[in-house]
Amino acid sequence: MKQIKLKGKDIFNGTQFLGSENVLIADQTGLILDIVPTAKAGDDVQEVDGILCPGFINTHCHLELSHMKGVIPEHTGLPAFLTQVMQSRNLAANNPLVIDKAEQSMWEEGISAVGDICNTTDTLVKKQQDRMYYHSFIECMGVADAAASQRYEYSIGVLNSFREISGPFNQCSIVPHAPYSVSRSLFHLLAATPNNTPVTIHNQETAAENELYQEKTGAFIDFYHHFKMDASAFQPSQTNSLEAYLPFFQQQKIILVHNTFTSEADVKFAQQQPELLYWCLCPNANLYIENRLPDIPMLRKLNCNITLGTDSLASNHQLSIWEEISTVRRHFPEIPLEEVLQWATSNGAKALGIQDNYGTFKVGTRPGIVLINQHSKRII
Ligand SMILES: [Zn+2]
What we know:
This protein is of the alpha/beta class. The chain has 2 domains: 1-53 and 360-380, Urease, subunit C, domain 1; 56-358, Metal-dependent hydrolases (TIM Barrel). The protein contains 13 helices and 16 strands. A 4-stranded mixed beta sheet has the order 4-3-1-5, with no helix packed on it. A 4-stranded mixed beta sheet has the order 2-6-15-16. Strand 15 and strand 16 form a beta hairpin. Helix 4 runs parallel beside helix 5 (184-191). The longest helix has 16 residues, at 148-163. The protein is globular and about 70 Å long. The protein starts with a strand and ends with a strand. Zinc ion binds at residues 60, 62, 117, 202, 311.
């Protein structure tokens, strides 16, 4: 098969920059064959204008909400945002053309693997295409403690549908939605599910979540009343939410998503627990909903494993990991590009457990090849 030899301004191999005098060699299917010094690359080297990078890993998306692009205004805060999602998510849902279009844009801008939240089987057909890798996180929620087993059984039904397509391009697990939407009994059921990895959860996306756990007051009480949810069994832990729910889990791998209101004390507590933690940042969604960013300098200082996600088109203008990287760099220019690219590639792959096949230019893998200049664009 014909070899493709690519020389860019630099090569980022998933871990580090290799310098401009290197050539990436792949076959036409994207199989990585070698990286060699320019002097040893021989003929037919194509010069490309930008940095060569492995395909991005989007560790938090909701492909099934793609029809909600532009429906909800920006800066409402999370409780009001969720109210609108719940009231309008079923309008025009499960439109295969909208899901196709959203996936196509992820593909073109260079995303190779996605951790995708599912409440329904709306994305099942798309995911059988075996083009991008999906870890489908089947999301379970239920505020009323008495309904926990009923909610769990419903989500296990959805999980079983996704298990039927398990294979090299599809894996799945059942996960809690968020600390404010999952009862104690439901946390116990989810944490006890065997062979269920990784787990993910929306963590501390709004100040109201910590207020609920501290004092059982605030915007989530109004939210429960609005939807006639029975939160009478909820007991405030008088701690932040993370301290209250993390001990339900044992030695699982957990991807904590958003972390917009996570404090240094929260992280230090979490790091003493037995779980292997990844901290997924979705900066554009945080700006869209809460107009605030997580304390990224603090997460870096405490050596957190950081990954990046796009969240959904309900809370973002596009599904582009490069746009997330650009937002991080705009707000925190002191963070080296090399480090943010690690979050977007090899760290994301480790979080999803696919580091043997994705996130680096390892010989013998097909991680996708992306060209970065002002934007990012898939080459293969
Ligand atoms: Zn989300």
